[in-house]
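Need residues for this backbone.
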């Protein structure tokens, strides 16, 4: 096959870049794979011709117009194997890497479960959710530990407190913001804390869903300007569902946005509802 015929069969012009050649070859491979499932003979791709054209073009670009030296049938088959199956080989390597990653994640999760099983039960589980928490993943564990310590300082009888930082931007200004919002929504859907501390904007978004426990019993113990009442789904009247704790001492020694209003709320099906209510009372009394 001469070089002009090779370009014609391959479907590119002689001034195509090397990158364009590789992209076109990938297209031929994908089209060939798709044609294996198509009963229409007109759609079949002759990969022998495509491979020959590809090798001719590559050889011409590397060595010029000199005639490609004769090679043995074995060498031609070997070249065909590495050329045609190179994408398959790369795909297998990627697949193996993914499998290894999944296995490692499962092992890590199992180890984490075993470690948690050896700990005393959490007196309360709190999720800090919204744009006021740190988005720096390198400080995530450190900040969660500090928040837990701040809570335990106020309740010496509690043995353990579990905290979850779930950053979510209020606005969307980049693809990163979109990814963070999707991740935070998944955490909200899968985690079941006893209590949430979140941006006022997010509180207004979630409170109408009926996911929070009514805090009417706390109305006489907390300042009126800290209480947030509204009607949730199936409510006939307004109930108190949130308490503002914007500058509470729980945020000591951690990075956070001070100007953001922060609302504490209790999950309707909280396992440690009484402890969560005690914590809200304590935090509301330390808020400025």
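Answer:
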């Amino acid at each position: 096959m001469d070089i002009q015929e090779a370009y014609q069969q391959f479907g590119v012009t002689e001034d195509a870049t090397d990158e364009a050649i590789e992209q076109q070859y990938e297209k031929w491979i994908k089209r060939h794979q798709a044609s294996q499932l198509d009963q229409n003979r007109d759609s079949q791709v002759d990969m022998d011709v495509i491979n020959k054209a590809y090798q001719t073009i590559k050889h011409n670009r590397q060595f010029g117009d000199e005639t490609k030296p004769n090679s043995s049938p074995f060498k031609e088959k070997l070249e065909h194997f590495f050329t045609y199956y190179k994408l398959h080989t790369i795909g297998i390597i990627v697949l193996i890497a993914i499998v290894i990653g999944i296995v490692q994640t499962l092992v890590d999760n199992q180890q984490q479960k075993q470690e948690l099983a050896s700990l005393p039960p959490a007196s309360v589980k709190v999720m800090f959710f919204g744009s006021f928490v740190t988005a720096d993943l390198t400080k995530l564990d450190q900040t969660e530990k500090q928040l837990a310590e701040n809570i335990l300082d106020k309740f010496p009888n509690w043995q353990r407190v579990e905290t979850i930082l779930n950053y979510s931007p209020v606005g969307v200004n980049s693809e990163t913001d979109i990814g963070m919002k999707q991740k935070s929504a998944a955490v909200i859907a899968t985690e079941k804390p006893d209590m949430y501390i979140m941006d006022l904007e997010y509180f207004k978004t979630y409170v109408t869903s009926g996911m929070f426990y009514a805090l009417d019993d706390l109305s006489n113990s907390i300042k009126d300007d800290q209480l947030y009442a509204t009607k949730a789904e199936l409510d006939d009247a307004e109930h108190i569902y949130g308490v503002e704790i914007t500058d509470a001492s729980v945020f000591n020694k951690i990075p956070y946005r001070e100007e953001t209003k922060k609302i504490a709320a209790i999950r309707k099906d909280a396992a440690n509802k009484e402890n969560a209510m005690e914590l809200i009372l304590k935090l509301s009394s330390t808020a400025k």
